[in-house]
Write a structure and sequence with these properties.
With 154 residues, the chain is mostly helical. It contains five helices and five strands.
């Protein structure tokens, strides 16, 4: 029993390490999309979160989508935000127009690849805010990212 708990704890640490590493990688990549972006350091005494400061007023569409995911999933904590970003990047590359046809004759559409069975029109699923709002509802209802099957989701 003790051995199983150690394995589970080691797996959680590995998953958390990978998620944090991916998040930092994502922040660095996004930072390179902006000529005026810079990573602020050192970490403040209250915590060691990576913070990116943008001197550009016009955000790219991808940054706007990331900001909305952070806003929507933020109340659940940094770990859940990271998991949401990882999941949705693996599902659609954060493309609001992403469309995937499934073998069961249903379609997954939008940033979070919301399926037909959830009763949303294709147009609503291509609206990144409505798509992410529905994704958050599904996350809360399932207590996790279980409705998604992307490589970065579970």
């Amino acid at each position: 029993m003790k051995h199983n708990k150690q394995i589970i704890e080691a797996t959680r640490r590995q998953r958390d390490f990978i998620a944090i590493t991916f998040f930092i990688f994502l922040v660095v990549i996004i930072g390179h999309w902006y000529k005026e972006a810079s990573i602020v350091s050192p970490c403040p005494a209250s915590g060691c979160a990576v913070k990116v400061v943008y001197a550009v007023e016009n955000k790219s569409r991808i940054q706007t989508i990331i900001d909305y995911i952070v806003y929507k999933f933020g109340p659940e904590g940094d770990r859940v935000v990271t998991e949401a970003l990882t999941c949705f990047i693996s599902e659609s590359h954060l493309n609001p127009l992403a469309y995937n046809w499934n073998t069961n004759n249903t379609a997954d559409v939008g940033v979070a690849q919301i399926n037909d069975v959830h009763g949303m029109s294709v147009q609503d699923r291509q609206d990144y805010k409505k798509n992410i709002d529905k994704a958050y509802e599904l996350y809360k209802a399932s207590h996790g990212f279980y409705p998604w099957f992307g490589k970065g989701c579970n």
